[in-house]
Amino acid sequence: MATDDLMTRALDALGDDGPLSAEAIRHLTALGDLGDLPETMTIAEVAGLLDISPHTLRYYERAGLVEVARDGNGHRLYDAEAVRRLVFLTRMRLSGMPMRDLRHYISLVDAGAHTVPERLEVLVEHRDTIRRRIRELTLSLTAVEYKIATYGGSAGPDVQTLGAAR
Asked: Which of 16, 32, 41, 87 suits a disulfide with 78, CB 3.0-4.6 Å?
């Protein structure tokens, strides 16, 4: 299942009836919401599930972001915990979190509960960055909608027309 498929499935599970919540995300990160995963998965299976390359998975391992067990032949075996972490990593990368920040955050997680305040600081800073990007993208979308309307097309339902209440 591709990353886009995972996001679509997650959004469908949340529904359209209101804002997203931390509790909804907690529910989505439970193992059952990843589907019926086998006890262990190969690198090819995880790569296919997350729609990322085996090279990226090996890179995340070399970077110390995820630990992966090996079988008797030295082949990687991803357990459910590793897959959950990889889902988080791919979400953070998709949201634009730089690798250095991701490495720092994961090192804090691995260091234990006493790092929670610093983890919170990292995530709050990233949230603020995402919010700014959303505002920038909203402004860009509005500019595109304006040009579409200028050329006689119809603007999307979420864009106020000229002269509408301000």
From this structure: 41
